[in-house]
Structures are given as C-alpha cells and as structure tokens.
Amino acid sequence: MYKDRHYWLPEVDMAAKHFITDGTTFVQDALHGLALANPSLRHDGDKAVTIISGGGAGHEPSFVGLVGDGLLSAAVSGSIFASPSVHQIQSTISRVAGSAGTLLVIMNYTGDVLHFHLAAEKARLAGFDTSVLVVGDDVSVGRRKSGKVGRRGLAGTVLVEKVLGALAQQGKMTLHELCKAGEDVVNNLATVGAALDHVHIVGKPTTDFTDRVDQVEVAARLKPTRLYSGTFMTSLDGKGFSITLLKANSEMLEALDAPASTPGWSITPRIGANGTEGGGKTSLGRSHQETSSTKPTSQLIVDERYFLAMLKRACEVIIAAEAEIDRFDAVVGDGDCGSTLARTARAILQEVFIKGQYTSEDGDIVHFLEFLALVVENNMDGTSGALYAIFLNALAGSLRAIGKRLPKQCLIQRQNWVEASSEALQAVCQATPARVGDRTVMDVLDPFITSLQNGATVAAAIDAAREGRESTKGMSASLGRAVYVPEEEWSRVPDPGAVGLVYLLEGLLGV
C-alpha cells in the first residue's frame, strides 16, 4: 500500500553515520567500559609501566595504603618488619605486570633488596620486563658510617612513588626512562625522623629508654628538655614539650641541610610517637590477571649426562668440605656456612639423582637451571641462598635470551656460558654492595668470571678464583657477620663463603 510513496533523506556521508565516529579508540574504550561495569574484570590494554612496592608490615598505611590511581599498581606485605617472600613478590608481578614493564620501588633494607631482586630475576625469566629501584634517603646516618650497605629507606619513598606514579599514568615513558627518573629523585632526596621511644613489635614487651627518659632520638640522641616525670609526660614550665619539639625540629633541619646530605628534594621533618606508624589494618583489593609465558621456540641444549656428572661431583666435593668450611666460619661467622652449603648439595642430590624430580627429554639447560635455583631457594638460608638463587635465575634468563637469537636447539657453547655468567654477575652486583676487596664470595666469583671474559682457560680461571680466596685471609671485612669479630681473627682464616665457592667450581669443572 506504500509502493507509490517516496521518502527522502538529506544528503549525508554514510561512512560517518555512526553513534561513535572515532574508530581508532573504539575497541579500547569498549573494553575499558566493560571492565568499569563489571568489578570482576580488569582491562589490561594500557601501555603504561606498572609500579609495585612493598616491605615489612607495621608501617601502615605504607605500602598497601598507597595503591591507587596515579600511585602504586599493587603492594606486597611481609610480616611485621620482615620482607615479603620471593613467591609473594613474583606472584604480584605476574598479576599486575604492565605491557610496558613493571618497576619495583623498595626501601634499602637487606632482606627487601635481596628478595625483590631475586623476584625480579625470576619474573624476567618468566618473560616480564622488570626493574628495581632502591630508595635510601635517611640522612641521620652519614655516608661513611652507612658504608657499603647504604642509607635506610624512609618516608621519602612516598614522594618517589607519587612522582613515578604520576609519570607512569601518562603512559609516555619506557620502563628504563621511568627508572632513571626515579633515580634522579632518589639522588636528591633527604629524610630524617625523630622518636620518643624504640619501636616494638605487637605482643612483645616494650623496651623504654630507661636511663634515657629525658632524650628524643633524632639521628644521634639529644637531651633538649626533660620529657618524663615518673611514667607521665609533663611540661616543666608549661612550655617544656613545645621547646622540645622546636629543638628536635632544629636538629632535624640541620641534618637535612648538612653537607653530608644531598641538597635538593627533602621531606618535611615529622615526629612520631615511636619509630614507625601504628599497626593499623589495611588491605589491598585489586582484580587479578594471570599471565603465563610460553615456551621459547629456540633452546640451548646441553649434554645432559655430562652436565649431571659435573653437578654430582660438585655436590660431593661440597659435602666433603663441610667440616672445614664450618671450622673457618666458626672463627669469623656463625659456624654454619659449610653446613648450609652441604645441606643444599644433599638436597640437589636427593631431588635430582634419588627422587628424580627433574626430568628432561630435550636437555634444555634453562629449565634445568630454573629447577636448581628453586632447590637452592628452598634449602640455602640467609644472604648466600639469595645470592646463589639470583645468580642461577639470572644465568637461566640470559641463556634463554641467547637461545632466542640462535637457530632452534643449538648445543650450548663456551661463549654462551661466559656471556650468560657475566650478565648473571651483574645481576648479583645489583642486589648486593659487596665487591672484590670486601672479604666475601665476590672475591672469588668476580675474578673467575672476569678471567673467562678475558679469554683465560678454565684452569686459569680456577687459579684466579683460588687467588681471590687466599686474598681474603687477613682482609678487612666490610659486610656480614665478620664485621663484628675482632680484626685479628680475619688473618687466621679465609672467608668461608669464598672457600665454599672455590670448592664448588673445582668440583663442577673437575679442575
């Protein structure tokens, strides 16, 4: 009935006749909107670098209280004043890793530095581009006194995270550029704090200043105005507490402005009731995205029977040297270095040769090193365990990268080992301030790898390692337990960790 009726529409560009006219952002906008409408979904289309921080609990609202828009992407919490585990950190990286990379911002405490660096190496091995930025802003301890360990991380970390969070949100910086920007802030950062009492752990007896009740602790102890009368804080003249605060602030400002501190950025001095914030409860609520890495298309293959024979021989050599290394460590340490190494060697023999937990049909050296690193992490305590694990994970990651540059399934060559070992050494150097001359395992590891880099034979590299071990006898200790023993003990024995590494290399390489 309408066939004779005609309808006209104005002349329009039919290509533009859409409710949404910008097709360049349509998909990303739609996905982002879907995630906003459904709290169980997370949109992962952004190219920005994600930022993760963390450390021991007891400092709330850090770190979990700083998760949010323009700040942290996630936070990892350990127990009270204790670093989170490598597994916690690595799991967090895998959940919130950005397509442009992930930056771990941490405070300069030994446990945090080692665990976060080890987690970063494991994350890189799994395919996540990850870097670590360490904040050391406490100027209450001079640079000379802080020595190799460096200054502690304090409240200045919040400023670092805020600046980097804002930069990352813009999505214009690469991971390397963001990390460099963070280093610039850290290098111009100074923080100093004050406390009326020592910090204490919840549930444990408190330790008062006792004979120092009239002091406020600001870097060094002060005695500005008597604060306590009996058990109650009093004001001697109605103004005593105000005078105390003024004097404390003056001392803090002097510390910030001292030549030993770095001029530039500074944090406003603040005085707390004790060394840290109260133990309030905060929680991290984030949607999670699991990410898995695929098996590389190319591999570096090792003669597995030959490699297993080397590994078994090295473990047996370490076990045989257990008592000797412990005897050395009893002089300059806790007396358990040999036991720790031998326990790990026995665990490797148990897992690989008795239980047969590791099986490989293709001889992929990367997978084997990952397995060994896990055994080390689970069985070797303390700093040594973290450093060995960092080295093994970095070694595996470097070999994987080398394998991707080569034709599929290539037999590993000497130059591959040397290149990967050099990169693993650099990873260890990023995790510890120890260097040659500090009476540590580095006095063996560094000359051994450097000799190989310079074209030396394996036998010559082992000789360089032995010379490094001998050089530690009588050497001043800069790090570790040996720092606290009388200097005359240093000349009696070489560094136990250096001795253990030489035995390991001799057994592994059969020299």
TrEMBL record:
GO terms for molecular function: ATP binding; glycerone kinase activity; triokinase activity. Pathway: Polyol metabolism; glycerol fermentation; glycerone phosphate from glycerol (oxidative route): step 2/2. Residues 284-297 have a biased composition (Polar residues). Residues 266-297 are annotated as: Disordered. It comes from the Eukaryota. GO terms for cellular component: cytosol. SUPFAM superfamilies: DAK1/DegV-like, DhaL-like. Residues 7-435 form the DhaK domain. Residues 305-510 form the DhaL domain. Keywords: ATP-binding, Glycerol metabolism, Kinase, Nucleotide-binding, Transferase. It catalyses: dihydroxyacetone + ATP = dihydroxyacetone phosphate + ADP + H(+); D-glyceraldehyde + ATP = D-glyceraldehyde 3-phosphate + ADP + H(+). One of its GO terms (biological process) is anaerobic glycerol catabolic process. SMART domains: Dak2 (SM01120). The keyword Signal does not apply. The keyword Transferase applies. PANTHER family: TRIOKINASE/FMN CYCLASE (PTHR28629), TRIOKINASE_FMN CYCLASE (PTHR28629:SF4). Belongs to the dihydroxyacetone kinase (DAK) family. Catalyzes both the phosphorylation of dihydroxyacetone and of glyceraldehyde. This is Dihydroxyacetone kinase.
